[in-house]
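Training component of the fellowship. As part of building independent skills, the fellow (R.M.) carried out the full modelling exercise for a liganded target. The chosen ligand was zinc ion. The inputs are recorded below so that the supervisory panel can assess the work.
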Amino acid sequence: MIRRLPVYLLLDCSESMAGDPLNSVEIGFHKMLSALKRNPYALETVHISIISFAAKAKVLAPLTELSKVNPPPLTLRPGTSLGAALDLLRESIQNDVIKTTSTVKGDYRPLAFILTDGYPTDDWESALNRLTAVKPAPAHIYAIGCGSEVNFETLSQIADVCLQVDAVTGESLANLFVWLTASIQSASVSPEAPLSLLKNIPLEKNLTLIDKERPPKYTDQKNYLFLHVTCRKTRQHFMSRYRYSPQSQFYVAEAAIPLPDDFFQEGSMKAPAVDAGLLAGLLECPYCHDQGWGKCGFCGHLFCLPSDHFLPEITCPFCQTTLKMRPDDEPFSVDGSVG
Ligand SMILES: [Zn+2]
Ligand SMILES: [Zn+2]
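Fellow's submitted model of the complex:
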């Protein structure tokens, strides 16, 4: 019997991955699969499972031998349920992995790669306790934090190895998948000691190894703010991304990115409200091209509005309540999202 090397990929599919980052992950994963499928060592041992996490954690692909893995589509959802992902990882390993006994040589210790660009929005600590209670350690865990807002103090507690990808851009994520491919390839050659091989794998551009004993201090200052907005006319959703400018101390409008129609199916995440007066610049609704926006006094949801004329009455595209609008409304606070 061939001993398998199970590889679990845990992918953050929260809104901060919307647009280019999620596409880059899909492309990177495709390339990684085709490279691994050309590698005889990997083909012999590697089995891959994919778990996504956002509002919930889901097994997108159960543990499958490399030659038969097809990349599943990734869908965006609000939130970063890292705790749920860790629980699902623990359960999957329990169910999937063949243990070594006196008569059977079981599977190699799995590798788990957690790719995240936010910080957990659920109770990850108790999930971590449940995971570390399993002895011997159920997996070699690599945490890969993407961008500048990653909580490495958290990830250092979860992972054997922490890596930072400098920015959530197409190029950085492409480089990350080159590194992941090399890591899985070398682990498939020596699956007994994958961590000791790490030092031989060159770090691609945009990647930094984090010192687990001294992770970078995590600050609460958010560089990005994400607002969920629904188009008043088409009822489709988008995310307005704002970037904090330390000079002006405003959140400056950066991009409006379409979200899938079923984005709110599993609920939404609430973050501390932000004074709308701190938001600078207008973003155009990607569906109807209106540049203004308003907030439903009933359900709290945001929607697009024309910026050049006043509408005395509108229907909230989210809760369908008819709203009387006042032209002289005071600045209000909006609920952003942190996922
Ligand atoms: Zn619109
Ligand atoms: Zn409403």
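The panel noted the following from the submitted structure. Helices lie at 20-37, 40-45, 82-96, 124-132, 152-158, 170-189, 194-197. The pocket of zinc ion (ligand 1) is lined by residues 231-233, 285, 287-288, 290, 304 (CB under 6 Å).
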